[in-house]
């Protein structure tokens, strides 16, 4: 009875959206593809870096996101979710002067949104458990560093009043976040295995 309704639920998911029950076990594959799609859209959205903005480029001095050290025990899901949400937030600022193709902007925003949703759908229960895990300094410290990094991006845009050059500088900067996302996504692959192993163990205990 239970397994039959579960099967129906899976079929419903399969037909109602792109998410199937199997996808959650292969979340890293989906996320890797979506990372590269988003980067492609970001690059396609505008043309080459405008010549007239070269001077302003040095005005932006962020902490280098590539230098944020992500330790091995890092909870990759928490970091990926945070980066995606920050990106979504940034590209929801005033884009009037950005002189980018409107359709590409929408595609980029929708892509990020879907990526966040899929991550949350597959992992919500698991993530709640980890976030409430008390005093995990590694996760908190990374989260704080990421927050500071994206704050400098936000502040820069605000200070430059969302000018075309400011947006071009940020577009170039943001493309550097994707290698980080790829590294974290790779860790998801290993975590998935551990999680499944954990589930099997729990079942054995329950049936004993
Ligand atoms: C966005 O910026 C433009 C000027 O660049 C301004 O005219 C418009 O009102 C702003 N829109 C919002 C929603 O703030
Ligand atoms: C934080 O979590 C990681 C695994 O996610 C664990 O290895 C580490 O010991 C935890 N740190 C603390 C201070 O609890």
UniProtKB/TrEMBL annotation:
Domain of life from the UniProt record: Eukaryota
Listed InterPro entries: 4_helix_cytokine-like_core, Interferon_alpha/beta/delta
SMART domains: IFabd
Signal in keyword set: yes
SUPFAM superfamilies for this protein: 4-helical cytokines
Gene3D superfamilies linked: 1.20.1250.10
Cellular component annotations (GO), alphabetically ordered: extracellular space
Protein keywords: Antiviral defense, Cytokine, Disulfide bond, Secreted, Signal
One Pfam match: Interferon
Gene Ontology biological process terms from the UniProt entry: defense response to virus; immune response
Subcellular location: Secreted
Example GO molecular function: cytokine activity
Signal peptide per UniProt: 1-21
Protein family according to the UniProt entry: Belongs to the alpha/beta interferon family.
Function text: Has antiviral activities.
UniProt-recorded name of the protein: Interferon beta-like
Source organism per UniProt: Terrapene triunguis (Three-toed box turtle)
Lineage: Eukaryota, Metazoa, Chordata, Craniata, Vertebrata
